[in-house]
Write a structure and sequence with these properties.
The protein is an alpha/beta fold. It has helices at residues 16-28, 34-37, 43-48, 87-97, 118-131, 148-155, 170-176, 182-195, 213-225, 252-264; strands at residues 51-56, 60-61, 71-72, 102-107, 136-140, 161-163, 200-207, 230-235, 269-272, 281-283, 289-291. The protein binds iron/sulfur cluster.
């Protein structure tokens, strides 16, 4: 059990610009961002670069991953949670007014919806594009319960990047992601490429949940076996003592080693350092990976 954060987690205070952006997103546009709900350490940096990650479909998830800080559905509640159909338009408005350059659209997992929320992703992409034709759009999608048509509807919208996180290695999966399925997540990434081979795909793994080097190597080879293009590796930080405990803090040098390994086995773009998070690696206009 690791508690004290190593020195390399020291961070600068957020700029006023970042704080202003964060306030207007929440107060003016009534929008959820993963930045807030997941206590993302990079919020100041991303907001200062006019990048934001919007969480659609509410702030309550129908699953209970042990590492995640997002609000969870009440146990035994078997009614459908609400869907805010005005949300896509408000996100499009926020993107325009705040002059954002790149947005990531993600969601909690909504197993209570027939399509897992795919239609709301499509409506949000279309609304954002409608008001901001040049915007870079990335979607970070749940597994849509493995529904082929749901995934296809999102792939057809051709966002710049489609992300789906493996989050951890096959041997740790059942310990922290009981309702998800390692093979189903790999199949989803594989299906993205069979539906549109030109579509850029991306995945992310948190380090420090107890995986051995051999487990991590296996997971990276598995992602390459489904032609995943972009990879993010970041340090798992436990949101509270009620969440799954950190088993190990990887040093910046270890992250560099894994980054080199990932490039050697064929990933096109890799972001690997302790504070790296999924939306931190974006694809700017020149297809260059930027630290957003
Ligand atoms: S499915 Fe996603 S949002 Fe839901 S608990 Fe798991 S990690 Fe968090």
């Amino acid at each position: 059990m690791k508690n004290r954060l190593p020195v390399w987690f020291k961070q600068d205070l957020p700029s006023q610009k970042a704080l202003d952006l964060s306030d207007s997103l929440r107060n003016e546009f009534k929008l959820n961002t993963v930045c807030h709900s997941a206590k993302c350490p990079n919020m100041p940096h991303c907001f200062s670069n006019r990048h934001a990650t919007f969480m659609i479909l509410g702030d309550t998830c129908t699953r209970r991953c042990g590492f995640c800080n997002v609000k969870k559905i009440e146990r035994g509640l078997n009614r459908q949670l609400p869907v805010d159909f005005d949300e896509p338009y408000r996100i499009a408005q926020a993107v325009k007014v705040l002059n954002l350059e790149y947005v990531v659209i993600t969601s909690v997992t909504r197993d209570d919806l027939d399509d897992g929320g795919a239609a709301h992703f499509v409506n949000t992409i279309r609304a954002v594009r409608g008001l901001n034709p040049d915007i870079g759009i990335e979607v970070l999608i749940p597994d849509f319960m493995g529904l082929h048509n749901a995934l296809e509807s999102v792939v057809k919208e051709k966002p710049k990047v489609i992300s789906h996180n493996l989050e951890t290695t096959s041997n740790i999966f059942s310990l922290v992601r009981g309702e998800a399925n390692y093979r189903r997540s790999l199949n989803l990434l594989s299906n993205i490429k069979s539906m549109n081979p030109a579509q850029v795909s991306k995945s992310s793994i948190m380090l420090g949940l107890g995986e051995a080097d051999s487990d991590l190597r296996e997971a990276l080879y598995d992602l390459r076996s489904v032609n995943c293009d972009m990879l993010v590796l970041g340090q798992y930080l436990s949101p509270s003592t009620n969440h799954y405990p950190v088993q190990k803090f990887y040093s910046p040098q270890e992250f560099d080693n894994w980054k080199d390994f990932a490039y050697r086995i064929g990933f096109k773009d890799v972001c690997a350092f302790p504070l790296a998070r999924t939306s931190y690696l974006s694809l700017n206009k020149d297809r260059q990976c930027t630290i957003s």
